[in-house]
Amino acid sequence: MDGWKGRIDHWLEKEREKREKVAARETEKQKRRREKEEAEKLTEHQRRFHCCVCGKPSPGPFMGLTGVPISDWPGWVDEPGPHWRIPTGGLKKCSQCGQWACEEHIHKGICQNCAKRLC
Ligand SMILES: [Zn+2]
Ligand SMILES: [Zn+2]
Q: pLDDT by residue (tens digit) across 78-95?
């Protein structure tokens, strides 16, 4: 092979490696950004969905599939998860105060806090 052709090959090879390195760095950056976003979403989700009696948070968003009915959610879930607006871990919405409570602290749709106010 002529020397000059070899130079081109060599240069092209180096350019390709450079591009791959940049792409890999970009992918890594995006991955970290996504992870950070997910963590923030989870924090926000747990701040919103936790037991109003003991404070136990939802472990994460509902990962439902098409057409899965949610007993304590008005309506149906039409798309696969994650559904950040739907809690998991047995949290149910209290029919009296509208707050969420875990299985231990809700009975027939009424949370322990509201039970104290019943007469
Ligand atoms: Zn609880
Ligand atoms: Zn309540």
A: 677 788 888 999 999 999
User: Would you list the DSSP string of 37-105?
Assistant: HHHHHHHHHHHHSB-TTT-PBPSS-B---TTEE-TTSSSEE-S-S-BTTS--TT-EE-TTT--EE-GGG
If one counts every other C-beta atom within 10 angstroms of the C-beta of residue 32, the result is 10
CA of 53 to the centre of ligand 2 (A): 9
* Residue 95 CA, ligand 2 centroid: distance in Å: 7
The single residue listed with the structure tokens 């309506």 is 75
Place of tokens 């969905």: 49
Q: What mean pLDDT is predicted for residues 23-41?
A: 97
Joined together, the tokens standing for residue 36 give: 């950070």
**Distance of alpha carbon 81 from alpha carbon 29, whole angstroms:** 24
Question: What is the value of pTM for the model shown?
Answer: 0.70
